[in-house]
Amino acid sequence: MALTSHLMKALERIVHMYTSDFTYSTDSCHLQKFSDDTAIVGCVSEGNDCETEYRKVIMDFVDWCELNHLQVNASKTKEMVIDFSRKPSSEIAPVNIQGLDIERVRTYKYLGVHFKQQTGLD
Fold it and tell me: For residues 107 and 81, what is the distance between their CA atoms, to the nearest angstrom?
């Protein structure tokens, strides 16, 4: 039995209402949600604690999901690092969720926007 568009919209509203109490936004880290998709964006630069903040937001979100009986599918979760510096950067360790190192990708499509590791946007 196919779900009607009205039922799908109602389910999206329920998911939004259920997840709307977890928000995060600072100058260096932001949590973006759309329907049942969540993206955590961190601006990490050398010499500051932004990477620590980025990783803490991820772990806080995973903990919040578990507390609220929601499951993060770590095998479908992706991480992309876009380096805007002109000098070679040191390798950043991958994010680890539920004992799984998250796959790092060079390209990613989120809400119809294609991101590329080398140039940022396409």
Answer: 10
